[in-house]
Write the structure tokens for this entry.
Amino acid sequence: MTPPDADAAPSELVHLDVTAGVATITVDSPGNRNALSAQLRRELLDRLERAIADETARVIVLSHTGSVFCSGMDLKETRGAGANQQGINEVPAILETVWSSPKPVVARVGGAARAGGVGLVAAADIAVAVDRATFAFTEVRLGLVPAVISVTVLPRLLPRAAHELFLTAEVFDAPRAAAIGLINASVPADELDAAVDRYVAALKLGAPAALSGTKEMLRAERPSSMREDFAQMQELSASYFAGPDGQEGMRAFAEKRSPSWVVPD
């Protein structure tokens, strides 16, 4: 028997499958609790970019294998490295890609998330977790600051909860995560896929350009003046009413049929 090549690259850790308009990205490194190793970071960013570029993909689902969604940075790789060599320097690109994706991103959380893994959950547009899943910002107990992930997490969390959980690093459950805005829903394990499918089905009914435009609107900083805010939003709204998707949507409504952008299952 030929011994395995010790220098061979590890097998693929992040998979991409596009079916019926849904791009499913599966993190598959259960041996290290789906930690954000260098290979996983590289592959995750690549799969995200490919899913966004795929014209057949309408919705992105971020999923995982094993009992842990993502345990955060791979600490074995970060020990002994200088500030300029730390893998955390690559995480902003991943979180920003999820956050700013023109296509809706749904996080399917079937297990625990810690630190950077919670940042991924927060970056998604919609997140559904099993009720037994747990979350924690463990950084301060490791002598670290949850700085990078705060960019996606803080817009989601209630301020009091953010102070409590960032500073204490205490573990909290999925029902609490839903109550403070980190996730959209906490469901029993046997209902997770159905809950994700329900969100995906609803998202697939939206026009791609309208979904992208709505995401951009939600991310944008709003003017301090209500008059200016209304003026900008009126202009945006009118452009979509007059645009091809808006006209098609209104025709489809009048004709009692599905709009042309609806992808069959």
